[in-house]
Amino acid sequence: QNRTITESNDATRTPDSAKDSSEKEHSSNTEEAEEDDEAETKEVPSTDENVAKAYTGDWEPIGTSQTGEHSATDYTDGSADRIEIKQAVAAATGISADNMIEWWIGNAGDQQVTATVSDTQKEKIARVQLKWVDGEGWQVTLVEELNEIPNN
């Protein structure tokens, strides 16, 4: 592998610079592999003027510690539902759970939730639709990147 790199670059390189190039190539390969783990998304139209971009994706359910029938969502701070919803939203939006403000978490239908969140700098704002998948947890179905935090 290093031989190919050396042959394709300037032949007067020192072994140290060849090593640096090899490490850079390895680093970019790692980044590409991480990108492959991300869900494939598809942009979808929106009629909401506050939506900059909306997309659906093939996000996996986040997993759950909950067992038995999930008859109602527990919106209480610190509940398993709230923790798992936040984890699912973080995975889909790229806003880390530690850097997230939850502006609104509410019912969006039977076993469905809408979460409006932003980063703490309020630079990245998203409204996320999720649905409950029995035995597998909360699954993101739609992400809308918003221009501003909605009033309601």
Model description:
By secondary structure, the chain is an alpha+beta fold. 29% of the residues lie in helices and 30% in strands. It is built from three helices and six strands. The protein has a six-stranded antiparallel β-sheet with strand order 1-2-6-5-4-3, with helices on one face. The longest helix is centred in the N-terminal third of the chain and has 23 residues, at 15-37. The model is unreliable at 1-36 (pLDDT under 50).
User: β content, as a range?
Assistant: 25-35%
Question: What is the structural class?
Answer: alpha+beta
Span of the ends, CA to CA? 56 Å
Number of helices: 3
Radius of gyration: 21 Å
Mean pLDDT: 82
Portion of residues within helices = 25-40%
Q: Tell how many strands the DSSP assignment holds.
A: 6
Helix and strand sequence: HHEEHEEEE
The biggest sheet, with number of strands, parallel, antiparallel or mixed sense and barrel status, is: 6 strands, antiparallel
Low-confidence blocks of residues: 1-36
Strand order of the largest sheet: 1-2-6-5-4-3
Global geometry: globular
